[in-house]
């Protein structure tokens, strides 16, 4: 009797997927206003006329409770996704997509809108056979289309205009935003970047077309050729051209491993395409060809994450691997990196005899160097690493010795890497190295005392004696471990945690030709140009900041602050601290050299007219640098002296924030600090003059003033201007904004900015928000970057009525 109901239930369950499939096979040409899709059915998608593409809800990796609003290939075996919304964030079951005269509105099961697209005046929509979903007005012109808002994939006939980008997904089956971005930049350059998961900050490029000022758009034509259109020619990106393109599905995807791959898939209806082609997606071209070789960067973790390395397999797929004695934090999510399977060498005890080296060929982590020796032999190189508890890897090559520390970044392996690494690991026969959650002396002491108590029983006298032996022994080991390390090195190592290079005074005196070429000066010292030798006999120019010893009490504090602050930061928009000297009365800092000088000299140099495109890219870079300091460092850093003189420009006009002598560090549970007045007149926030706590909003205020200077290409206060209304830039810009005369604040020669008044107005509105007198009204730097990028709408800023007192 029970068999028949069970058969009925099974048949009903079997019919469910067939019913859902039938619901997605109703070809729809024009979709009318008022149509609705529901992830729970009965209508879950709209098809293109040929039935080859669908737009609607599809389950995420077979999960019946989470759905993507997406476009996909209907007739491929895996129904490959070509487009998706909302950064790949899944929508719960019960979510709906409503099509109104304002466009598309995605709402969750509670009726809250989570995504929208379109504009007023939409009359109908269509899912096209090209894979493009479009909204049209009464004239039949598209108001919005998916081709203009790509996710990680482009299709034939699709064009990426200047300002467009693709973002990779996190993993093959995780559609949330990943670690790579392809940008068709406004400056005409096609660039691939790595990005951190927490923000859109871009690290250094790992591939670029180098077509600044020349590129116009990226095109994927119907025959399968992908090329970058230049003003006078084209630049081929891939060469996957097909003789019979109509017999194949095509796509090009920025994959989750950072490689831009072009794929083809034979259509089931085609017989001519079947010969020699498998019934799956086949890679016909890719860029870059060897991402592990080309994927070098000057910041970030690299193509793979920290302590792992990038290796290209025979089928051109990227594999991230851990070195011996290291394991992935999460084997299913390798982007999280690797961690040692052993306790690091103690800095409190002498454990140098308990470690050895594994030799690994063709492997390097290019950004992990922190100390270099020359004219040494291999035994000395090994011993230097064994005696240094920070050292995890050492490289010896023709008398040169480089020490590297954890976290190891930008790792890569292959024949193109002419290196042999010596990886420091515990000896196999060592029984004394223990893995502790806390490597500090307090934890070790407790473990030793407990172990001794258990071994020696309840004898109070013996246990007390054991404790004394442990304490005295530890004191001896600490003295022995520090023997030979100068006092100034101990101080700087303590301040840095992970130290840059340590120079002696004579080295820096020689590298600067006895401090002969001055390139800048400030209240705490003078900056000189010099050079050092890098790997493979390369020469690198450096900037050496020599602190003024005549005001030693002040400069000593600023020196310590600057070393401690910038020594623990690493970002493409911060000046990199290469090393320091703390020898006797000498206090020096060594930075990377910036050929284009300061933002102040670049903006106000009468012979140079910085283009509008260059200026807004500089503004974005400064904002991202401040965002890193405020929200992405383990310890929040308030710069306290943001001004154009403290922003330097490299060869590519990438802005880098410098001069951290006045910076303040906040603990993770601290939001404000009390301190004396700091900064430079004209850029100081009003709260400095009040008896209130200082927050990161003081930097936001200074950035607002700098942003106005960048837009208008002039000083924030210019007493040489005859018109009194224009002397104070903030007043002048605010008046022009309120009177709808923003064109007046632009340089007379800047036709490029005059043609881009929408962005000019956006930047001005952001600046006016930043210089509000009340700190709580100012946006955070995260909000600032989003507003500058155009990712969020900017409300009309309040009329700042009382900020002038602090600007003048």
TrEMBL record:
The leader peptide range reads 1-22
Membrane topology per the record? Single-pass type I membrane protein
Q: Where is the Bulb-type lectin domain?
A: 22-148
- Ranges where the Protein kinase domain occurs: 513-792
| Pfam families in the cross-refs | B_lectin, Pkinase
Question: Binding of ATP: at which residues?
Answer: 546
One GO MF annotation is: protein serine/threonine kinase activity
Q: Which GO terms describe its cellular component?
A: membrane
Compartments where found: Membrane
Q: Which InterPro entries match?
A: Bulb-type_lectin_dom (IPR001480), Bulb-type_lectin_dom_sf (IPR036426), G-type_lectin_kinases/EP1-like (IPR051343), Kinase-like_dom_sf (IPR011009), Prot_kinase_dom (IPR000719), Protein_kinase_ATP_BS (IPR017441), Ser/Thr_kinase_AS (IPR008271), SRK-like_kinase (IPR024171)
Q: Which reaction does it catalyse?
A: L-threonyl-[protein] + ATP = O-phospho-L-threonyl-[protein] + ADP + H(+); L-seryl-[protein] + ATP = O-phospho-L-seryl-[protein] + ADP + H(+)
Keywords, A to Z? Answer: ATP-binding, Disulfide bond, EGF-like domain, Glycoprotein, Kinase, Lectin, Membrane, Nucleotide-binding, Receptor, Serine/threonine-protein kinase, Signal, Transferase, Transmembrane, Transmembrane helix
What Enzyme Commission number does this protein have? 2.7.11.1
Q: Does the keyword Transferase apply?
A: yes
What family does the entry list? Belongs to the protein kinase superfamily. Ser/Thr protein kinase family.
What is the protein named? Receptor-like serine/threonine-protein kinase
């Amino acid at each position: 009797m029970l068999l028949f109901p069970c058969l009925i239930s099974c048949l009903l369950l079997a019919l469910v997927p067939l019913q859902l499939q039938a619901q997605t096979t109703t070809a729809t040409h024009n979709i009318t206003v008022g149509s609705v899709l529901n992830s729970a059915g009965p209508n879950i998608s709209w098809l293109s006329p040929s039935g080859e593409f669908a737009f609607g809800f599809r389950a995420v990796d077979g999960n019946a409770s989470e759905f993507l609003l997406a476009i996909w290939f209907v007739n491929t075996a895996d129904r490959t996704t070509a487009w998706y919304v909302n950064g790949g964030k899944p929508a719960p079951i019960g979510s709906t997509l409503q099509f109104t005269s304002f466009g598309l509105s995605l709402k969750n099961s509670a009726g809250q809108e989570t995504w929208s697209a379109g504009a007023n005046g939409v009359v109908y929509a269509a899912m096209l056979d090209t894979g493009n979903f479009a909204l049209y007005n009464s004239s039949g012109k598209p108001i919005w289309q998916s081709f203009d808002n790509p996710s990680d994939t482009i299709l034939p006939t699709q064009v990426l205009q200047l300002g467009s980008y693709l973002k990779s997904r996190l993993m093959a089956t995780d559609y949330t935003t990943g670690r790579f971005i392809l940008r068709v930049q406004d400056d005409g350059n096609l660039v691939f970047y790595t990005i951190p998961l927490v923000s859109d900050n871009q690290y250094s490029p790992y591939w670029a077309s180098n077509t600044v000022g020349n590129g116009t758009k990226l095109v994927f034509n119907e025959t399968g050729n992908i090329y970058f259109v230049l003003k006078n020619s084209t630049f081929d990106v891939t060469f996957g051209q097909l003789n019979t393109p109509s017999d194949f599905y095509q796509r090009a995807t920025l994959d989750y491993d950072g490689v831009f791959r072009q794929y083809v898939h034979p259509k089931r209806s085609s017989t001519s395409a079947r010969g020699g082609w498998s019934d799956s997606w086949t890679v016909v071209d890719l860029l870059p060809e060897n991402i592990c070789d080309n994927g070098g960067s000057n910041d970030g973790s690299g193509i793979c994450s920290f302590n792992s390395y990038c290796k290209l397999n025979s089928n051109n797929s990227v594999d991230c691997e851990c070195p011996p004695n290291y394991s992935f934090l999460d084997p299913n999510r390798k982007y999280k990196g690797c961690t040692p399977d052993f306790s690091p060498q103690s800095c409190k005890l002498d454990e140098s005899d308990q470690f050895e080296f594994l030799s690994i060929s063709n492997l390097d982590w290019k950004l992990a160097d922190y100390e270099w020796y020359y004219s040494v032999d291999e035994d000395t190189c090994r011993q230097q690493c064994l005696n240094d508890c920070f050292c995890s890897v050492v490289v010896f090559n023709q008398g040169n010795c480089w020490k590297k520390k954890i976290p190891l970044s930008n790792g890569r392996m292959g024949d193109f890497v002419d290196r042999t690494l010596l990886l420091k690991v515990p000896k196999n026969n060592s029984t004394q190295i223990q893995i502790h959650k806390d490597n500090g002396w307090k934890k070790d002491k407790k473990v030793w005392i407990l172990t001794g108590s258990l071994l020696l029983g309840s004898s109070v006298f013996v246990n007390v004696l054991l404790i004394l032996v442990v304490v005295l022994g530890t004191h001896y080991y600490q003295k022995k471990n520090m023997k030979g390390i100068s006092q100034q090195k101990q101080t700087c190592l303590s301040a840095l945690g992970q130290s840059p290079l340590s120079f002696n005074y004579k080295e820096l005196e020689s590298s600067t030709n006895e401090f002969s070429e001055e390139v800048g000066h400030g209240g705490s010292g003078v900056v000189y140009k010099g050079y050092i030798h890098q790997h493979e006999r390369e020469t690198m120019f450096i900037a050496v900041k020599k602190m003024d010893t005549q005001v030693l009490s002040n400069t000593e504090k600023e020196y310590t602050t600057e070393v401690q602050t910038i020594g623990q930061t690493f970002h493409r928009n911060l000046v990199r601290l290469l090393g320091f000297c703390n020898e006797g009365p000498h206090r020096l800092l060594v930075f990377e050299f910036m050929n284009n000088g300061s933002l102040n000299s670049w903006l106000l140099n009468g012979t140079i007219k910085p283009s509008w495109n260059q200026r807004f890219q500089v503004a974005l870079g400064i904002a991202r640098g401040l965002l890193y300091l405020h929200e992405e460092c383990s310890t929040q850093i308030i710069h306290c002296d943001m001004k154009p003189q403290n922003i330097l420009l490299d060869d590519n006009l990438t802005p880098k924030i410098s001069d951290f002598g006045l910076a303040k560090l906040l603990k993770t549970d601290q939001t404000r600090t009390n301190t004396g007045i700091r900064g430079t007149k004209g850029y100081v926030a009003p709260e400095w003059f009040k008896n209130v706590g200082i927050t990161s909003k003081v930097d936001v205020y200074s950035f607002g003033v700098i942003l106005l200077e960048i837009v208008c290409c002039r000083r924030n206060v210019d007493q040489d201007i005859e018109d009194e209304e224009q002397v104070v830039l903030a007043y002048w810009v605010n008046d022009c904004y309120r009177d709808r005369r923003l064109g007046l604040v632009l340089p007379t020669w800047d036709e490029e900015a005059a043609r881009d008044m929408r962005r000019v107005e956006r930047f001005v509105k952001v600046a006016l928000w930043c210089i509000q007198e009340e700190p709580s009204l100012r946006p955070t730097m995260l909000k600032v970057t989003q507003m500058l990028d155009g990712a969020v709408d900017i409300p009309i800023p309040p009329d700042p009525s009382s900020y002038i007192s602090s600007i003048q």
